[in-house]
Amino acid sequence: MGTADDYIPIQLTRKFRDAQFDNDFQGWLKMQEAAMQIEFPVHDCPEIREDMYSKHSLAVIENKLLQMYPDHRVAFNPDNVHTTMRYVYYVGETFRRNFEGIWVVLPSMSDPTQPPTTAAIDYPMREAMNKPAELVQMALGRRKGNEITRVYGYAERDYNEWIAMGKPARTFLRTLRED
C-alpha cells in the first residue's frame, strides 16, 4: 500500500498526454494566437504594443484588468469571458516565451468523462505549472497590482537557476509512474 507521498506527476500520465490532442484546446490555442496578432495589441491593450511579452507588460496587463473588472466573477461571466480569456492567454504566453514553457491542457481528474478545460504552462525546469486563468483570478481577488509579476519573478528565478545548472533534465519529486 502506498503512502500519502506516493503519486504520479500528472505530466507522466496517459490521460495528460492524450489531453494535449484535444481539438477544443488546439482550436483555442490557434484562436488566441490569432487574436494576439490582430486584436489584442490594437483593441484590447494598445499600451503594450511595443513591449509585448515582457515582464513590464504584465504589470500593465494586471492594472488594466483591475480597471476593467471589480472581481473575477465579473471577468469570467459569459458577457466578458472572451475578452478575459485573451488576457489569460497573453499572461500565459508571456510566461511560455520567457521560460521555454509549453501550453498544456489539464484533464479532469475527478470526472474522466469531462473534456480537458484548464490551460497551463508547463516548464522544462520544474514539476509545477502555472495556470494563467488562476493568475488572473488571483490578481482580481487580491487587487494589489503586482500579483502576476510576483509569480513571474518566481518562475524567472527558477529558470535562471536551471540555466546556470546547464539546463538539466527535469526531475519529479516522486518516482511513481503510470506506465
Tell me about this structure.
The protein is mainly α and 179 residues long. It has one domain. 51% of the residues lie in helices and 6% in strands. A two-stranded antiparallel sheet has the order 1-2. Helix 2 packs across helix 6, helix 4 runs antiparallel to helix 8 and helix 6 packs across helix 7. It is globular and about 45 Å long. The model has no long low-confidence stretch (mean pLDDT 91).
Number of DSSP strand runs: 2
Helix segment tally? 8
Helical amount: 40-55%
Proportion in β-strands: 5-15%
Structural class: mainly alpha
Write the layout of secondary structure elements.
Layout: H1 14-19, H2 23-38, H3 40-44, H4 55-68, H5 72-75, H6 81-98, E1 102-106, E2 118-122, H7 132-142, H8 147-164
Antiparallel strand pairs: 1-2
Helix pairs in contact: 2-6, 4-6, 4-8, 6-7
